[in-house]
Amino acid sequence: MDTFGFLLQGLGTALDPMMLLYALIGVTLGTAVGVLPGIGPALTVALLLPVTYGLDPAGSLIMFAGIYYGGMYGGSTTSILLNTPGESASIVTALEGNKMARAGRGGPALATAAIGSFVAGLLATLALAFLAPHVVKLALVFGPREYFALMMLAFVTVSAAFGESTLKGLTSLFIGLALALVGIDQLTGQARLSFGVPQLLDGIEVTTLAVAMFALGEALFVAAQGPQADAGVLAVKGSVRMTAADWSRSWKSWLRGTAIGFPIGSMPAGGADIASFLSYATERKMSKHPEEFGHGAIEGVAGPEAANNAAAAGTLVPLLTLGLPTTATAAIMLAGFQQFGLQPGPLLFISAPQLVWGLIASLLIANVMLVVLNLPLIRFWILLLRIPTPWLYGGILVFATLGTLGVNPSPVELTMLVLFGLLGYLMRLYGYPIAPVVVGLILGPMAEQQLRRALAISQGDPVTLVQSPVAAFLLGLAALALILPMVMRARGKGQVLSQVAGSDD
């Protein structure tokens, strides 16, 4: 069956009335939580991960995809109206979007962000559907050493791409790898680092770690900053509709943002923040109104927001085809698969094609639902921005705790939730990235298993790890991934900052 056939089969699954309901619940929850100030897509997905428990795998993952896309959509609202980006990728949206809102054009800014996200999400999801089968064919030739090299690429990628310091990223990764050792050894059956606690024999729950590190750690970090004046929400004056001139200036930016965002998001060392910064620099160079940049240029909202959402869809290419998470949100989505015993990768397309293609098709449906929800309900989402910060993060603490206990009611689980929450707070305090810890816990056991299998086959000869051309290429790519993100980030951000500085002079 060709890609069209698989996609039509997936649409048949996704258009089931119950699946549509799950998708609607997912996009509504994702948007509602993602629109809250200071809460990015990773925290949104981590916080709502326990909500998907108890459903069948297809329904859970479709709801999860809706939460993911909803969280991405919601972030633009806080960037434009509050000048408070929920993540680094939304910083560029805030640069021009907040200036538009202050000039009384918040409605068109929100509209171009929503429509641009829809266009980019739609095109990028179609690209995902047609690209994924080709990546899967290549990955099916992988043996233990190739999979180990792939895991090494994942480890280096998340360590180098997150945070300002590669050393701090590697330190976070090794914390996650140490936590991955807890439990029963998969090959020998021996207990490791369980300290006589029976609940630790099954290892540390990824859900508990993700919710604690992202939700509790963030809430504690915000509380530690002390009382702060809440930023005033800018009113949306006039119509939220875009004028003909706005459409004329935006549609090319949407397409350029998509063309920049999807391939960068698909790269192991890419990311939405790099894509959005490069898109902003491109729009400034190609705009017929460069004098407006820094003062509220609509292209500066349309392009980066499209690039942001295209990159979000692009991250699903390595995640679904190779089991390789390249962002914090993708790492939590990997945990969502694993709660059902599913491991994303080439074998998943063979063992559960209906599930995978139903998930991809649901992304198309979620995009349509989101643009229908966001444009008419913009004024409703704005009301959520008026929730006081203490109430907001107090609610996050309660919801995260109840969600975790609802999944696994145990004093040991609650203790780990608190301890990991404190660890998340300390890591934020000293500038250590959170995502490598989660990736280390998820991929650590798989990397160990593949390494031991490869060495067993070669009778202990470590040279076998580089004798395969594919494995050698992936390990070389991992070495490159240590340097490339720093260079791309410095170049992209340097261009943006110099141009912003120039516009302020």
UniProtKB/TrEMBL annotation:
InterPro entries registered for this protein in UniProt: DUF112_TM
Keywords: Membrane, Transmembrane, Transmembrane helix
Lyase among keywords: no
Source taxon at top rank: Bacteria
Record-annotated DUF112 domain positions: 20-438
TM annotation in the entry: 20-49, 61-82, 109-135, 147-163, 169-188, 200-224, 316-335, 355-378, 390-409, 429-447, 468-488
PANTHER family associated with the record: TRICARBOXYLIC TRANSPORT PROTEIN (PTHR35342:SF5)
Protein name listed in UniProt: Tripartite tricarboxylate transporter permease
